[in-house]
Design a protein that fits this description.
binds 7N-methyl-8-hydroguanosine-5'-diphosphate, 4-stranded antiparallel beta sheet
């Protein structure tokens, strides 16, 4: 079991990546973003300063393919604030009243970065994932899981290629923070692609287990307790060493339903209101461990409540079965 990668320093890691240090080809060649033709806005949030876009991009053969682009304004870095305030052009006064005034600042481009995620080519399922939709709560019994959900996820799920690329060290190798290489009880810990790694306030890592037969919470039994306790203890330890954040400041949880059916665990900074932490989706790893210690078959038996989007074919399956 070894802590992998360069010494702890988000900033240095970033410079590395900017210089082409990433081993998954990031930065090589022209970006498909340059040819992105906007089709529609799938969703946005003024509060989170994020927008999800569907567009078309020509692939290498010149055929038009679907693409999803996510643009997100990044959090402020305390070390840059002086440059933002004192920058050129000077702040423009918008209004002034008594002790109150508002300004518009136009910081230099290097202080005005936008985190951009591209999914290309994107499938219909990717587009739907980011399309804002009405959601409905489902109560899935163990039997519903076996009769309705399992056949559905076996027939159509997102590709796990990106997960296997990480486990096989074909992608994101230089981003690995920690690895326990045991094929049964081991995992790889690395930054989630939602995190730009510029500040720890919105820290977000994922632990991906080596074992490939566990799809989700539903497949867990007491035989997985060594794996789960390794993820919790060694994951927290590695994050404390790398980012100086203690276990008591981390939210460690699984999603049910996940988007990707290969067991993985989310680590987010407790003070960060990370997407996907609502009670109808997030299951704290420490609770999962305790439940399995009480009953090895806990997650095969219990009813789990979660939300499904209006256009999710799984919701239709539950409706067809008269379950909602
Ligand atoms: P999930 O619970 O299956 O679904 O989590 P969610 O995406 O709806 O939350 C999968 C996690 O893996 C998410 O937090 C994603 O941001 C993250 N993720 C997805 N992809 C495709 C990648 C990737 O290629 N690299 C990394 N590092 N993280 C990813």
């Amino acid at each position: 079991m070894a802590e992998a990668g360069a010494p702890a320093c988000c900033k240095r890691k970033r410079e590395n990546e900017a210089n082409g240090g990433s081993q998954d080809g990031a930065g090589a060649g022209a970006s498909p973003l340059a040819g992105f033709q906007l089709q529609r806005v799938l969703g946005d949030s003024a509060r989170e300063k994020i927008i999800f876009l569907h567009g078309k991009v020509n692939d290498e053969s010149g055929s038009e393919r679907d693409a999803v682009v996510i643009l997100e304004k990044t959090p402020f870095l305390a070390e840059n604030i002086t440059d933002v305030l004192h920058g050129d052009p000077a702040p423009q006064l918008q209004m002034s009243n008594d002790v109150y005034s508002t300004y518009s600042l136009r910081p230099p481009s290097q202080l005005n970065e936008i985190k951009t995620t591209l999914i290309f080519p994107a499938t219909e399922k990717h587009i739907k994932k980011y399309l804002r939709q009405e959601v409905f709560l489902i109560q899935e019994t163990g039997e519903d899981y076996r009769n309705i959900t399992l056949p559905f996820i076996e027939s159509q799920s997102f590709s796990l290629q990106w997960v296997y690329n990480i486990l096989e060290k074909k992608a994101e190798l230089d981003r690995i923070v920690y690895e326990n290489p045991s094929p049964t009880d081991g995992f790889v810990l690395l930054p989630d692609f939602k995190w730009d790694q510029k500040q720890v306030d919105n820290l977000y890592l994922i632990a991906i287990c080596h074992i490939r037969t566990v799809k989700s919470l539903r497949d867990l039994s007491s035989e997985h307790l060594p794996l789960l306790t390794n993820i919790l203890n060694e994951g927290q330890d590695a994050i404390r060493k790398r980012y100086a954040i203690s276990g008591s400041h981390l939210r460690v949880y699984l999603h049910y339903q996940p988007s990707y059916y290969h067991l993985h665990v989310h680590f987010t900074a407790l003070g960060y209101d990370a997407p996907g932490t609502s009670v109808e989706r997030a299951h704290l790893l420490s609770d999962v461990i305790q439940n399995l210690q009480l009953d090895s078959q806990y997650y095969q038996k219990r009813t789990i409540t979660y939300a499904l989007r209006a256009d999710d074919p799984l919701l239709q399956k539950f409706r067809d079965a008269g379950k909602c």
